[in-house]
């Protein structure tokens, strides 16, 4: 029997890359998530040679990523876990909206053991635009996934390759809307060839939070939602009422996007103190566009009294805290199984 060929799997989730506008010149106000992944691929016969093998595709969702839901993420986690376990599949490409791309990339990196290239790609202009950027981004993503190169979760856009733990959306309109936090891209794609700019040893390790056993993944996938974590920004004239209402409503985690070195308006301090005592988990981030907060007990840094500093930009820090809380719940649920009756 003939050996089945290796292949790439392309998973469609929607976004502007699959968007449709009323006219070719319309770059905003279009409908994201309209055109199926099959049709996107049909328009790009060159993908076959870039893939260096077979291409398989699956339409997982058709959403504007601003509306990303746990049910889409759950489907994506399941599909990626299956593809990672399938020895015939050598790489994965996910088409996705840019709005929450960094969150999805970070989720996948954190939960899955990604021992193949898993590449997310996107577009800033709808598929119907006169000079759409999606087709080139899709070609570049396929080239990276087929390169047999570095494993892990990567994001490809505007010829650049960003790591999941560093990618940020920094512009609402221009084509180069994504960038790597503190530093440049990890690689560039030129005419289908990947040129790495960062040596492999300095690429961020594919650290994942989630244990690699099936029971843990099954637990995560059985959840109806991830634990509730919100984001609050500290600013001039801050008032405590919004935070009080969130705590009252059962909030479990908070990413507090503080001023400067993660400092917090004094008007928020008393409610934060009470919330911490009641078990609210707090991660302190900074609203500065560059840099992570530096650990130091300082007046006004709520972290001085037990809140941890975020180690990622705030969108990734929020997902990390959700997963941490879910993992603790999983630990508690397995502990209860082992309790003597
Ligand atoms: N709203 C779109 C989305 O995130 C934006 C985009 O894809 O660029 O799905």
Concise description?
The chain has 341 residues and is an alpha/beta fold. Helix content is 30%, strand content 21%. The model has no long low-confidence stretch (mean pLDDT 92).
Can you walk me through this structure?
The protein is α/β, with parallel strands linked by helices and about 350 residues long. The protein has 2 domains: about 5-200, 3-Layer(aba) Sandwich (Rossmann fold); about 230-335, 3-Layer(aba) Sandwich (Rossmann fold), CATH 3.40.50. Helices cover about 30% and strands about 20% of the residues. The protein has 9 helices and 14 strands. The protein has helices at about 35-40, 45-50, 70-85, 100-110, 135-145, 215-220, 240-250, 270-275, 315-340; strands spanning about 5-15, 55-65, 90-95, 115-120, 150-155, 160-165, 165-170, 180, 185-190, 195, 230-235, 255-260, 280-285, 310. It has an 8-stranded mixed sheet, sandwiched between helices. The protein has a 4-stranded parallel sheet with strand order 11-12-13-14, covered by helices on one side. α4 links the parallel β3 and β4 (about 115-120). The radius of gyration is 21 Å and the shape is globular. It starts with 6 loop residues before the first strand and ends with a helix. The mean pLDDT is about 90. It binds aspartic acid (ASP). Aspartic acid binds near residues 15, 64, 65, 66 and 98.
